[in-house]
Design a protein that fits this description.
The complex is a heterodimer of chains A (389) and B (262). By secondary structure, chain A is an alpha/beta fold. Chain A is built from 14 helices and 17 strands. The radius of gyration of chain A is 21 Å and the shape is globular. In chain B, strands 2-1-3-4-8-7-10-9 form an eight-stranded mixed β-sheet, with helices on both faces. A two-stranded antiparallel ribbon of chain B has the order 5-6. Classes of the chains: A alpha/beta (389), B alpha/beta (262).
């Protein structure tokens, strides 16, 4: 496992252009920017799209201040592709998009998985046409790119979480050499609320593992038991070929089913084996709960309020807020829900993550769906809890 | 090392001349990144021991943009083809040229999609028979050099795999050029273009065809438009000095830092 280091040691001189520790009143999209800069992101490329555009606008000011690159690309295919080039050249790279823009990035994400390129994509989910909130991309974030793969997908429910999870997203990308998707939705991205930026030395930063052997002995895809190979940087003397084709430890094209199988299994297993460790959640009122609400994103705010109201009435209801959607931690989810008689999954889509919960728990789950563009009210979730009790 | 080029293909010639130029310029191969999308010419990057990216059709220009900006000390060479550059990557091509990003682009134009079986390409001349134009091509072709110039490329030349000395000189100039340099190389494709249009996959027949359809800029200047019909002009067309994206961006860093309110 990569050792985390204190922020200042990694960020050096540029850290004087980071926002100092303290409390801020900030928009979600801006918190994404500040989180990325604290994580060490020094390359940003994107194409404007509502409701993610403020991220690019803020980056056009902030990225040059920290000495990084900001570029508005010609489309989302170009955005993610320029990120790939920058990441292989040693930069931590970010792009931000929404909805159809994310569709265009799936091609690049396929490449990232296959060639093990760390980078972060923010998807501010929306309804189409009239730009409001949705969680319609929960499944496409996991399964969108073609080819066998694992994906790390995080989701935030507040401005503070956007900042914190943006840093976590970079740490996971760097550690596992896999793209990481940070999901949010229009509501949280455009919400203004309190953000506390911690002192830089309290921020945990993970950087990719670099080769330490002599360049002649470097095998770009040879790994230890972690399954994660050390990564060269263009120009550092450690030659490497990145190709989508089946490649062996040397990185050479080898037309062999066995080599392909070995590659696909390794890049999948390196994440699957750490699923429980990657999984982030917050559980409230779990101990004696007979009815459990599992939610994520802005829905978690209404769901927790509904659960509190039920508790005030003495009802045995609990809540789990998910911050990691993928990889799903089967063992943890089973353990957390073992005493619950009924599980409700409210979602701002037609019922996507409920399918994963059903798969894990192997029983019927109550799916509460809403696609009007507006978040659930606590009342709407309370009513479902009442029905379940 | 085994390669995929067919007998008589020009890609090997391009690779040969390019590496000779790099050698003569005494460029450190460890400071060059070779970027290819998908296609016969793009595949070259897989056989050069240095740094290489390969495998997403059309995205080579956008990859190269990321590399060139992330580390301006590196030389980025894009190896691409008429489909990779003129069709699926066309948007990235014109925008990389517009921004004058530091990269040297080597596009092998063999007038068809060689790797996928000889379909019509955006550069297939009118009337040419391919696997998707069995009665002759009816779509207007692109002139990639004109397109690059209109988009903002700052060095442009076109030669063929039969004009080694000129191509060698052009590679040296293009690699040393600051900004977006664009070199189009006309190349025979005996396996696909040759079989369908020339009814021969004989390398010599295909090379002679390239010779017949091309004319140097100097000779062309003496001919009338009627006499030039069906001919493709070769030459060093264009070279200007202009600040690259990164030159301008460096100034922008200073401007932004003055606005920092920590």
């Amino acid at each position: 496992m990569q050792i985390a280091v204190e922020g200042r040691k990694v960020l050096g001189e540029e850290s004087k252009y980071l926002l100092p520790a303290g409390s801020y009143f900030m928009m979600g999209n801006e918190a994404i920017v500040e989180g990325a800069l604290h994580a060490g992101c020094r390359f940003f490329a994107a194409y404007p799209i509502t409701p993610a555009s403020e991220i690019g606008e803020k980056m056009s000011l902030r990225m040059p201040q920290v000495g990084g690159i900001f570029i508005q690309m010609e489309d989302e295919l170009g955005s993610i592709s320029s990120l790939i080039g920058a990441s292989l050249t040693g930069k931590k790279a970010l792009t931000a998009t929404s909805d159809v823009g994310f569709n265009l990035m799936l091609e690049g994400l396929s490449y990232c998985v296959n060639c093990e390129v760390p980078l972060v994509v923010v998807n501010v989910q929306r309804t189409r046409g009239f730009i409001h909130s949705a969680h319609a991309d929960v499944m496409v974030a996991r399964w969108g790119p073609t080819g066998d793969h694992q994906m790390i997908v995080l989701i935030a429910s507040s401005v503070q979480e956007l900042f914190d999870l943006q840093i976590e997203a970079f740490n996971l990308a760097e550690q596992y050499r896999n793209p990481v998707i940070l999901l949010t939705e229009e509501m949280t991205a455009h919400m203004r609320e309190k953000l506390t930026i911690p002192p830089i030395d309290e921020i945990r930063i993970v950087n990719r593992k670099k080769p330490t052997m002599s360049p002649e002995k470097y095998l770009p895809y040879a790994t230890d038991e972690s399954g994660i190979p050390a990564m060269s940087t263009f120009g550092d003397g450690y030659n490497v070929l990145y190709t989508m084709n089946p490649h062996d430890e040397r990185g050479y094209n080898v037309w062999s089913g066995e080599i392909y199988d070995k590659l696909v299994r390794r890049i999948s297993d390196k994440i699957k084996r750490d699923a429980e460790r990657i999984f982030k959640y917050k559980a409230d009122f779990l101990d004696d709960s007979e009815v459990l609400v599992i939610s994520y994103g802005v829905t978690a705010r209404s769901a927790l309020e509904a659960v509190r109201r039920a508790r005030e009435k003495g009802k045995k209801v609990g809540h789990i807020k998910l911050n990691t959607l993928w990889p799903s931690a089967e063992r943890t989810i089973r353990k957390l829900t073992q005493n619950a008689k009924k599980v409700i999954v409210p979602e701002m889509n037609m019922g996507q993550y409920v399918l994963e919960i059903e798969r894990i728990l192997k029983r019927e789950i109550i799916s509460l769906t809403k696609t009007t563009g507006y978040p659930f009210s606590a009342q709407e979730i309370s009513e479902e809890i009442e029905r379940a009790l | 090392m085994p390669h995929i080029f067919c007998p008589g293909c020009g890609c090997g010639q391009i690779m040969n001349v390019m590496l000779k130029a790099i050698d003569e310029l005494k460029r450190d191969i460890n400071k060059i990144v070779f970027v290819g999308g998908v296609g016969c010419n793009s595949r070259q990057v897989c056989w050069i021991k240095s740094y290489a990216m390969h495998g997403l059709h059309g995205r080579a220009f956008a990859w190269a943009t990321g590399i060139a900006l992330a580390n301006p000390e590196l030389k980025v060479i894009v190896l691409t083809g008429d489909g990779d550059c003129g069709a699926i990557g066309g948007n990235h091509f014109i925008h990389a040229a517009r921004r004058n990003i530091d990269m040297t682009v080597v596009v092998c134009n063999n007038f068809n999609y060689g790797m996928t079986g000889g379909q019509a390409a955006p550069t297939t001349p009118l009337g040419i028979h391919t696997t998707t134009t069995p009665f002759g091509n009816y779509e207007n072709p692109f002139d990639l050099c004109e397109l690059g110039k209109a988009a903002g490329a700052t060095y442009i030349s076109r030669w063929s795999t039969l004009t080694h000395p000129q191509l060698f000189r052009s590679f040296k100039k293009g690699i040393e050029h600051k900004g977006f340099s664009f070199i189009e190389v006309l190349s025979p494709c005996p396996t696909n273009y040759g079989r369908r249009e020339l009814k021969s996959s004989d390398p010599l027949v295909n090379m002679n065809n390239i010779k017949e359809i091309t004319i140097t800029e100097k000779k062309a200047s003496k001919l009338s438009p009627e006499e030039l019909k069906g001919k493709i002009i070769l030459g060093d067309f264009y070279e200007i000095e202009k600040p690259s994206f990164y030159d301008e961006y460096k100034k922008y860093i200073e401007l932004a830092r003055k606005k920092f309110k920590g």
